Amino acid sequence: MRRLLPAIVAVLLSATGPAAAAGCLQEQAIYADPDGAYELRFEPVGSASAATSNHFKLAVLKTDLVLDGVVMEAGDPPRPAGMIMNKCPEGDVTGADIAACTIWEGVLYAADAAGKIGLLPPEGSEAAAQILLPDLGPAIRSSSIWGKATVAPFDVLALKGCKP
Question: How far apart are CA 37 and CA 102, in angstroms?
Answer without folding.
Answer: 20
